[in-house]
Amino acid sequence: MAESEQGEALEERWQRAFDRKYPGKEFKATTRSGIALKPVYGAEDIEGISQEDIGLPGLYSYTRGIYPVQYQFQAFKNQLVHGYGLPEHTRERMDLLTKEGMTGYFGERIHNLAYDLVSQNGYDPDDPAVEGKAGLGGVAVYSARDMEALFHDMPLDRSAVVHIVREPSMVMLAMYIVAAERMGFAQEQLRGNSMNACYSRPFWDTVGFPPKNTLKLMVELVKYCTNEMPSWNTTNFTGYVKEEAGATAIQEVAFTLAAHIALVGECMKAGLTPSDFIPRFSFQMAHGNDFFEEIAKIRALRRMWAKINKERFGCEDARSLQARIYSQTAGSALTAQQPLNNVVRAALHTLGAVLAGTNAVQTASYDEALSIPSEEAATLALRTQQIVLEETNIPNVSDPLGGSYYVEWLTSRFEQEVYGLLSKIEERGGYVRCWESGWLKAEVVKSAYEWRERVNRCEEIVIGLNKYAVEEQQRVPAFSYSPNLQRIAIERVQRLREQRDNAKTMAALEKLSEEARSVEVSNEGKGYLMPAIIEAARADATLGEMMAVLRQVFGWGYW
Amino acid sequence: MKSKEKIKVLLTKAYLDAHDRGMRYVAQRLMEAGMEVVLTRYGAIPEIVTTALQEDVDVVGISCSTGGHLIVCSKVIELLRKHNAKGKLVILGGIIPDDDRAELQEIGVAKSFGPGSDPQHIIDYIRSHVAKAREQASSSAARQL
C-alpha cells in the first residue's frame, strides 16, 4: 500500500477528499460487459499484476504488443473490406482505394475482399435457393475464371489478399491458387489469408456443415497450407461476428479462444504440431463503443493467446505466442439516424484500435446502416485511418496507454473474466459441444436482447436514436447496384459450363467426391482434400459444383 | 372467431443473410406482446409464401440486411395475390435505403422498419393493422352470408 509521509494510505486520503467534496454521494458505473468500475484507479490497483503481464512490447506475454516497436517501422494495414457486384465493379473499387493510399505492410497492396451472399454460402447464381442475391453484399465470383477477371495484371506475389468466406474457404482458396497459376504465380508466392471461420456459425446464422465435420474441413485447410503454402494465413478467428450478433466483449474473446482450443486439438489429432500451424492463425476482433474496455480486450487477448499456446500447447517459439490482430470497427454501433454521426464513431473506434496496438484496421463506412459503402464513404473511411496514422503523432510511441493504472487493471480484470467463461465452456464439454447444444447461440441472443432493452430504457445512450433525436433526417447519397447483375452473373456461369471440357470437369468432381468421403469417415485426419479441390478448380468446376460435392458428403443444414 | 385469436406473425430471412440479430429481437418482443411468432429462414422465395399459407399468419415480416428486398417483396406479394391471400400484412425490416420506399409502397409493402426502429412502434402498427384487416374480412364474410 502506498504510504504518505504522515503514514496514512493514499487511498484513505483520497476517500476523505472525496467525502468532503461530495458528501453522501456514490459513483456507480460498469463497462459494457458489466465489469464494475471505481471512479479512479491508482498504484494500488496494479500492485498484484506481475512484471511479465505488463512488461514491454515484443516480450512475453506480449500484452503491450507483439513487436519491440509497434507502428514505427510497420504501420497497421489499411484492411478495408470491399467487394460488390461483378468482378469488374469490385476491381474498380480495389484500384480506386489503392490509388488513394490503401496499403498493407511495407507498401504492399492489400485487398480484404467480401464475396457476395451466393459465393459466401457456396452456391452458383443460377441455383433457385439464391435467387436475386448475386453480387449483393460482396463480389460475384464463382470460378477460377472469375477470380482471374478480378485480379488480372496484379502483382499477386506482392499483394495480401483476404478472402472473406466461411464454408467455401477451401474452394475459394483453390480458385485463387488456380487463377494465380494462370497468371504466372506459384502458390507458395501467395500471401494473405483464408477466413476458415466456419466454426462461427452459431453467431453467423446461416446454413453450413454439421459442427464435427466443420472442424474436419477446417483442419484440411490448415494441413494443406502448413505443408504447401507456409506463408499463407490459414485461419482467422473472428470475434467480430460474435460482437455484431450481440456478444459482450468478454463473450467475444472467450468464445473465440474456445474455438481456437478446439481447432488446435483437432489439428493435433490429425498429426500436426502446434508450433507448425499456430503462427498462421490470426484474429479479427470488433472495436466498439466502450473505449477503454475495447482496448483492454485487445491487450488481454494478446496476453491470453501467449499463455494458452505456451502453457496448454507447449509452444516455445515467439511466432506461436504473438497474436496478430485485425480490428474491425463495429458496424452494429452505427445508426441509420443522423448517419454523419457515424463518421465520428468510426474515427473513435479506429483511434481505440490504434491505441490498443492492433496490426490491421477496417474502419466502417458511415453509410453502413443504409446501404453498402458508396465510393465517397469508403474513401472517407480510408482517410480516417490516414489521419490517425499520419497527423496525430500517436504512432511515435508504442502502447502509449501501457502502465495506465486503469488500463492495466482493466486488462487483468478482463482476462480473469474471460478465463471464468472459458472454464464454463469446458465444463459444458468444450466449444463443439456448446455449439451443438445451442448454448453459444442462446447466450449471445440473450446479450443482444439485454443490450437493446437497455437502449429502450435509455440506460445505454445511442445519440440520434434515444437521445438528441430529430425529426428531419440527414440524406446521404446511397450506393446503388448496377442493374442486370443477376442476369449477367448467371449468363457467365452458364457460358463457362458450355465452354469447358466437361468430361475433365466431371472426372475431377468425381475424384473430389472420393477424397471427401475418405476425409469424412476418418477421425485421424486421413485423406487429403485440398489437392482434389484445386484439381477441380483447374478443370473449371464452379464454386457451386465443388460445394455441392462437399455438401453431399459432409452434410448441410442449419446448426 | 379470428378476431379473438392471437395475432400470428411470420418473421423470415434468407438462409444466406447472417444478420439475424434484429429479427430475433423483434421476435422476442412480439411474443412478449402476446403474439404468436413463426421464426424461419427461407431458401427460394416461394418458401416464404408456402409457410405463410400453411401457418395462416396475419403478418408476413421479411428481414433483409443485404439488398435484394425489392425482388423478394414483389415476388412474395404477387404469390400471395395468386393464392387469394392479399389480406396478409407484408412488412419489411433491415437495411432499406430511403430511395426504395416509394417503390416498396407501390409493390404493396405496408411498411418498412429500418435499423433502430422502436419495437413498440412495430407492435402497435401490427395490432392496429391486423385489427382493421380482420374487421374487413369479417364484414365481407357477413355480406356474403
Notes on the protein architecture:
- The complex is a heterodimer of chains A (559) and B (145).
- Chain A is 47% helix and 8% strand.
- Chain A contains 21 helices and 12 strands.
- In chain A, the strands form 3 sheets. Chain A has a 5-stranded parallel β-sheet with strand order 3-12-11-10-9. In chain A, strands 4-5-6-7-8 form a 5-stranded parallel β-sheet. A two-stranded antiparallel sheet of chain A has the order 1-2.
- In chain A, helix 3 (87-99) packs parallel to helix 5 and helix 11 crosses helix 15.
- The longest helix of chain A is centred in the last third of the chain and has 23 residues, at 405-427.
- The N and C termini of chain A lie far apart (53 Å).
- Chain B is built from 5 helices and 5 strands; from the N terminus they run E-H-E-H-E-H-E-H-E-H.
- Chain B is globular and about 45 Å long.
- The mean pLDDT of chain B is 91.
- The A-B interface holds A 117-118, 120-121, 128-133, 136-137, 204-207, 241, 244-246, 332, 335-337, 369-372, 445, 448-449, 452, 456, 462, 465, 473, 475, 478, 480-481, 558 and B 14-21, 24-25, 28, 41, 43-45, 66-68, 71-72, 95, 97-99, 114-116, 118-119.
Summarize the structure.
The complex is a heterodimer of chains A (559) and B (145). Chain A contains 21 helices and twelve strands. Chain A is an alpha/beta fold.
Summed up, the helix count of chain B is 5
Total helices of chain A: the number is 21
Strand content of chain A: 5-15%
Q: What is the β-strand count of chain B?
A: 5
H/E series of chain B? EHEHEHEHEH
The major pleated sheet of chain B works out as: 5 strands, parallel
Provide the low-confidence segments of chain A as ranges.
Answer: none
Question: What oligomeric state do the depicted chains represent?
Answer: heterodimer
- Please give the radius of gyration of chain B in angstroms: 15 Å
First-last Cα distance of chain B? 15 Å
Strand order in the sheet with the most strands of chain A? 3-12-11-10-9
Shape of chain B: globular
